[in-house]
From TrEMBL:
Source lineage: Eukaryota, Metazoa, Chordata, Craniata, Vertebrata
One Pfam family it belongs to: Cyt-b5
Protein name: Neudesin isoform X2
Entry similarity comment: Belongs to the cytochrome b5 family. MAPR subfamily.
GO MF assignments: metal ion binding
GO cellular component terms, A-Z: endoplasmic reticulum; membrane
Record keyword Heme present: yes
Main location: endoplasmic reticulum
Family matches, as SUPFAM superfamilies: Cytochrome b5-like heme/steroid binding domain
Cellular localization per UniProt: Endoplasmic reticulum
Length: 168
């Protein structure tokens, strides 16, 4: 008799646990965010170079610190013939840090920048680019090391204003 009761209790516990598990799975399904249907892109230098404002109906992209921004809405700055057109279609981190349009500085390279330039770079990155323009991807260099191995310091979640714009 006691044995039967024990088996019954075990069975009940098993059923209850099963129900809980089912409810948890359902909850998870319900609250899981919809998958992004437009994944951010990985840009090689050649791909990024296509978005330099040359073509009237093409979007204009500019990378800073390996983050590719769609700056099309700032066409008066970045479009063909505009004052900052030299910055687009590439990663212009160094030029933005030093506030120069010298072609030698229009590169991702940051070695030798002063503390002040690095601070200015971060300010422009946060207060101009991240604040104003949608992120459309990352440069291959930001995600992969020169030897093709993944960069462990890549953290897309440090982009709080992460939005994706139509294009793809
Ligand atoms: C004579 C020198 C310059 C003057 C008078 C000047 C003036 C300006 C002005 C008035 C704005 C703000 C426009 C607005 O928000 O409506 C601006 C934005 C900006 N300037 Fe300059 N600028 C100069 C040189 C440079 C140089 C050499 C660089 C090189 C990187 C540069 C990079 C930028 C950037 C990145 C922005 C932000 C554009 C945006 O909002 O997308 N500027 N500049």
């Amino acid at each position: 008799m006691a044995e039967g009761f024990g088996v019954g209790l075990a069975l009940l516990t098993w059923i209850l646990l099963g129900c809980q598990e089912e409810a948890r799975a359902e909850q998870e399904l319900r609250f899981k965010p919809a998958p992004r249907d437009r994944p951010v892109r990985l840009f090689t230098e050649a791909e990024l170079a296509r978005y330099d404002g040359r073509e009237e109906d093409q979007p204009i992209y500019l990378a800073v610190k390996g983050v590719v921004f769609d700056v099309t809405s700032g066409k008066e700055f970045y479009g063909k013939g505009a004052p900052y057109n030299a910055l687009v279609g590439k990663d212009s981190t160094r030029g933005i840090a030093k506030m120069t349009l010298d072609p030698a500085d229009l590169t991702h390279e940051t070695t030798g920048l002063t503390e002040e330039e690095l601070k200015s770079l971060d300010e422009t990155f946060n207060n101009v680019y991240k604040a104003k323009y949608p992120i459309v991807g990352y440069t291959a260099r930001r995600i992969l090391n020169e030897d093709g191995s993944p960069n462990p310091n890549f953290k897309p979640e440090d982009q709080p204003h992460f939005t994706i714009k139509d294009e793809f």
